[in-house]
UniProtKB/TrEMBL annotation:
Keyword Hydrolase: yes
Extent of motif GXGXXG: 27-32
The UniProt record lists the keyword Transferase: no
Organism from which the protein derives: Amycolatopsis acidiphila
Source taxon at top rank: Bacteria
Protein name: Patatin family protein
Short sequence motif DGA/G: positions: 181-183
GO MF term list: hydrolase activity
Span of domain PNPLA: 23-194
InterPro entries recorded: Acyl_Trfase/lysoPLipase (IPR016035), NTE (IPR050301), PNPLA_dom (IPR002641)
């Protein structure tokens, strides 16, 4: 479908087919360098307008915003900029009771002031962005697209979608909802796309093809559970069942049909969600672009 739409110059609102094609971008903190590379390859080939919607969870929502701004390749370069991630991801900040992951700095200083992300342009694109977050008071996935009206609401939505429990500071509120990381409920946001009537979904993954879902380390598990009990008890069930749901998602995506995925190749380096090493992140980005290129060229 991607090839057919690209071949005929199909654009949103003027399709010759009856389908609704979504792009879904997995979250994962710094692992998002992999899917960022995949998205950049789509941009390089002029394929963004073949999609009708872009769904992103956590860092995947931020990658989706850059893609719809028309400057995904420019935005990706800030992954390995020496002044960016070390000032966004600051483990020692916990000692001062400050956010370990400073998403407000990322949005307002890095993306708006330094990088010039065109938030208004993202909202004006006919391909609609759907940042997926977790509603802290219901424990369910929340599509924030209906709440996007201007640059400020988009920045809040992206911060809410990427709001890692315990690490990102106070919860963001938007549209009367308190928000947590979309990865709690829908790390791979194809479920929301299907519920919204998308007939086909291309999923950009941040996990390796040979990587199995693992339970969190005991220390992390206990700390996050304590945080959620105090802050968002309705989300405890989502936290407990994440590994099982991720394994179920892996099986479903492997089944093909209307779902296709681009995976990080086996043997690719491990990238933690809080990684800041510029060389590692650039390597992950390059492997992501190569994986997307391979997927697009298969069968030509």
């Amino acid at each position: 479908m991607v090839r057919a739409r690209a071949g005929e110059g199909s654009v949103p609102g003027a399709r010759s087919d009856p389908y609704r094609l979504a792009l879904a971008i997995e979250g994962g903190g710094s692992r998002g360098t992999y899917s960022s590379g995949m998205a950049v390859e789509l941009e390089r080939r002029g394929l963004v307008q073949v999609f009708d919607d872009v769904y992103g969870s956590s860092m995947g929502a931020i990658t989706g915003a850059w893609l719809l701004s028309g400057k995904a390749e420019h935005g990706s370069s800030f992954w390995w900029h020496p002044e960016v991630l070390p000032n966004v991801i600051r483990p020692r900040a916990a000692l001062r009771r400050k956010p370990v992951v400073d998403l407000e700095f990322l949005m307002n200083e890095v993306y708006q002031q330094w990088a010039g992300l065109d938030f208004a342009g993202v909202l004006a694109d006919p391909v609609r962005l759907h940042p997926v977050a977790t509603d802290a008071d219901t424990g369910k996935a929340a599509d924030l697209a209906p709440h996007l009206s201007d640059a400020e609401s988009l920045k809040l939505a992206l911060r809410g979608s990427a709001g890692l429990p315990l690490l990102a500071g106070p919860l963001v509120s938007l549209g009367g909802r308190r928000l947590l990381d979309g990865g709690l409920t829908e790390a791979i946001p194809f479920h929301t796309a299907l519920r919204h009537g998308c007939t086909h979904v291309l999923v950009l993954r941040t996990r390796r093809a040979d990587e199995r879902a693992q339970s969190p380390a005991r220390v992390e598990d206990l700390a996050v559970r304590a945080f959620l009990r105090r802050t968002a008890p309705a989300t405890l069930g989502a936290w407990r069942t994440r590994p099982e749901r991720r394994r179920a998602d892996d099986e479903r995506l492997a089944g093909g049909g209307p779902l296709a995925q681009v995976l990080v190749p086996p043997g690719a380096p491990e990238v933690s969600r809080l990684a800041v090493d510029p060389a590692l992140l650039r390597r992950a980005f390059d492997l992501g672009t190569a994986a997307m290129a391979t997927a697009l060229d298969i069968g030509r």
